[in-house]
Design goal:
This protein has helices at about 10-25, 35-40, 45-50, 60-70, 90-95, 105-110, 140-145, 170-180, 190-195, 225, 330-335, 340-345, and strands at about 5-10, 30-35, 55-60, 75-80, 95-100, 120-125, 135, 150-155, 185-190, 205, 230-245, 250, 255, 260-265, 285, 290-295, 305, 320, 350-355. It is an alpha/beta fold and about 350 residues long. It starts with 5 loop residues before the first strand and ends with a strand. Bound molecules: pyridoxal-5'-phosphate.
């Protein structure tokens, strides 16, 4: 018998999450963010489910080609643009849109010949201080682009560092407006958190990622409160039971000590499946529909849970690690990380199943 772990993908969840993004976007177009193998959900699977998106955004050139080859004709935006000049012929051939964020890319564009035009998203740094031209240079950068024959439509973009947090986006919006307000270019600003919290950041193109996968980027609103449905569920089964006496310990490093007689269930899921090794004692796991605490250290192929409160559970009992019935955000919080990291880290060895297909 195969190991019982499985990731199931609910195609109807992608569609209904997308509908929420679409509604919040108003008249803005929606660029579905599919980077990192669609946040671990499978690039082509998600593209198929979100075929209505006005655009698809990612940063892996190979995956962008894969999308074109699969027949997606809408805009495909490379979120970090190109890294070397030899990528440009491929980009032009497939008609990808590119972000440009530094002078080196500008110089590479300057050397392009031929009459194909490239749609360019100019990224301005408004405070994230990761990628982007300093916003104060926007005028110069736009002038330079105007002189390049290969450049077609130009769209201005920036990325928010605290759209989900207390600092918000107003300070970055102010910086953006100060330098581009009267220039009349289309804009792309909002990620999921900004789309959910700040209608003023919709611009012309919104770029939701995490919300399409059914996780909330916000601290004060759960996915369910927003109406989002988890698209990935990671499930498995109990494959072993141990009855501990008081003082016995569990797993590597003996991180958990039983303070009473304790019934331990061993779950077929470990860090080699993508479960976070840094999850603490007490991280929630659902067994037979009941939340129980994880105990001890997560190992490569297994983790342990305390079944003392559910005596009926045993070998073969169904387990949900995250997804429907257990928000991935909660598991992430207990492991000191964010839902994004857990979803992206789903390991290749985990068998997958799709539900809700046509
Ligand atoms: C990843 C990414 C997004 C999507 O962010 P979410 O928080 O997942 O909505 C949007 N824009 C850029 C530039 C990104 O890199």
């Amino acid at each position: 018998m195969a190991r019982p772990i499985q990731a199931s993908f609910d195609l109807t969840a992608f569609r209904s999450n997308f509908a929420i993004a679409r509604r919040l976007a108003g008249v803005a177009k929606v660029m579905a963010v599919l980077k990192a193998n669609a946040y671990g959900h499978g690039l082509l699977r998600v593209a198929r489910a979100l075929a209505d998106a006005d655009g698809l955004a990612l940063l892996e050139l190979d995956d962008a080609v894969r999308l074109r080859d699969a027949g997606y004709r809408q805009r495909i935006l490379l979120l970090e643009g190109f890294f070397r000049a030899d990528e440009l012929p491929v980009i032009l051939h497939h008609g990808f849109s590119v972000v440009i964020h530094n002078d080196e890319q500008m110089a590479m564009l300057g050397k392009l010949h031929g009459d194909r035009k490239l749609e360019v998203f100019v990224k301005l740094n408004t405070g994230m201080n990761r990628l982007g031209f300093p916003a104060v240079r926007a005028g110069r950068v736009l002038e330079q682009l105007k002189m390049l024959p290969c450049v077609g439509e130009v769209i201005l973009t920036t990325h928010f560092s605290d759209a989900e947090g207390v600092s918000g986006i107003e300070w970055q919006m102010r910086e953006f407006e100060r330098h581009v307000a009267r220039r009349g270019y289309a804009r792309s600003l909002a990620n999921s958190a900004a789309l959910l919290r700040f209608p003023e950041a919709r611009g012309d193109w919104v770029r939701p990622g995490i919300m399409l996968y059914g996780a909330s980027p916000l601290e004060d609103r759960t996915a369910a409160q927003i109406g989002l449905r988890p698209a990935m569920s990671l499930t498995s089964e109990i494959i072993g039971i141990q009855n501990l006496k008081r003082g016995d310990t569990v797993g590597y490093g003996s991180l958990f000590t039983a303070h009473r007689e304790t019934r331990i269930g061993v779950v077929a899921c470990g860090y080699a499946d993508g479960y976070p090794r840094h999850a603490y004692n007490g991280t929630p796991v659902v067994v037979d529909g009941v939340r129980v605490p994880m105990v001890g250290r997560v190992s490569m192929d297994m983790l342990c849970v305390d079944l003392s409160d559910i005596p009926k559970a045993g070998i073969g009992s169904p387990v949900t690690l995250w997804g429907a019935g257990l928000p991935v955000e909660e598991v992430a919080a207990a492991a000191g990380t964010v839902s994004y990291e857990l979803l992206c880290a789903l390991a290749r060895r985990v068998p997958v199943e799709e539900r809700g297909g046509d």
